[in-house]
Amino acid sequence: MSPQLSEAFARLPAYLGGHVAVSVTALLFGLAISLPLALLTMRRPALRSVLLGIASVAQTIPSLALLALFYPLLLGLSALCERIFGAGFSALGFLPSVLALTLYSMLPVLRNTVTGLLGVNPAISEAALGVGMTRRQSLTMVELPLALPVIMAGIRTAAIWVIGGATLSTPIGQTSLGNYIFTGLQTQNWVFVLFGCVAAAAFALAVDQLLALMEMGVTQRKRRWIATGGAGLALVTLAALVPSLSQPRATYIIGAKPFTEQYVLAALIEQRLRGQGLTASAREGLGSSVIFNALRAGEIDVAVDYSGTIWSNQMHRTDVKPRAGVMAELATWLEREHGIKMLGGLGYENAYALAMPRGKADALGIRSLADLASRAPSLSIAGDYEFFGRPEWAAIRAAYGITFHEQRQMQPEFMYAAIAHGEVDVIAGYTSDGRIVQFGLAVLDDPKHAIPPYDAVLLVSPRRANDAALLAALQPLIEGIDVTMMRAANLRGNAASPGEAARMLWSEIQRKR
Questions:
Q1: pTM of the full predicted structure?
Q2: 312, burial (CB in 10 Å: exposed 0-12, middle 13-18, buried 19+)
Q3: Residue limits of CATH 3.40.190.120 in the chain
Q4: Does domain 3-246 have CATH number 1.10.3720.10?
Q5: Superfamily designation of domain 252-349+454-512
Q6: pLDDT, tens digit, for every residue of 295-311?
Q7: What band does 51 get if pLDDT is binned at 50, 70 and 90?
Q8: Virtual torsion, Cα 499, 504, 505, 506, nearest 10 deg
Q9: What is the tens place of the pLDDT at every residue in 68-86?
């Protein structure tokens, strides 16, 4: 078995357990809310139209956006609860995922319940009333049983939507089968991507078939089929949850953003902590704002961030200072405003930088962003999902007056492939990415210093700021990595796995010392 496939199977209990937990919880909540609401609106057409309209609008919101929207809402609510009651709650991972997926599951259940009940022949309802039944008895004993096959079809649809949507909960910190997909895309580990897709599809198909068995049992009045389907669902759920629940709970949580370098560094920190006898696990694929807020709230304990990201996005600074000044001011601000401890820099910079093929840059006489400005109107540029909305891009445009013929957003691994195949002319790359060298790209100088320094810095949450064991385990990493080492580790992480790249990087750190 290949190392990548072996690692995929090793992660399956945790990923599948998290996926099942959030999917089943959201589906149960969706049913508990949707079914009573549908019954409540049966004699109230106006209310029924309003509820179906709201559910339809929620359904038009992309599931990833819906998941992301709940995180800041819950974060604010948690902060409010902490001020009022002295205790907050976790806004990361499970809770926002469940709430978003619950909302996402409601439309098919609401619509099918209403459709099924309205489809019952009115003569049957009148007959039930004629033999002395009340409206309630007619609904529960006659109309609902007749509408149940249609309702079950809606539940099946909701289950598939929820299971599929749960794969997108990774960026807000919920462990799921989506971890395979997000990690695999960023590290070019196509075994992970395929494994995650197959696992999610297999789980969805298993649930759908068991619900189909229950639906057939309802349609054909065979209670044995209903019981078999229900028992099968319970067994599938338990089989997925028990292995994940039996795993020891990690003492330290490491946050990682969704790109190869962060996966490698998270694996390195995890290996360092475990080497010191500490239990640790990583929460990968978190966005920049999510990871900072989670660190500040103590929902993760350790993370690597970049000085320029915090300077621009969190401190909202647009001025550019010398590196030493930025680092000193950053450490003071983090501790004073948020209680976050900055242990120091790792020793290299991962800055945004515009890059283009060296041959094309030489042919056009482009060495810097100032040179690029006059050529840009006839060129195209690609950046990651964040870049064109970040302050750095605004600063570059303001400093150099750069306007490109075309701007494209894409995943970083596709961005590098696009420039390698000539589909774009310039990319917003990262200076510590090994693919800069691999694809023969020239990093353009920034003579006006529009882009701030981007030193990789090691951050510890307020609740762990004085944890002696943690700080001692992390100390050897400070100033231990140069950009050449990080580029090699990035390439190794893409070619093999973040764990193997982390082991290689630690060997290099020890050799360097």
A1: 0.82
A2: buried
A3: 352-443
A4: yes
A5: Periplasmic binding protein-like II (3.40.190.10)
A6: 988 889 999 999 988 98
A7: confident
A8: 90
A9: 888 888 888 887 887 888 7
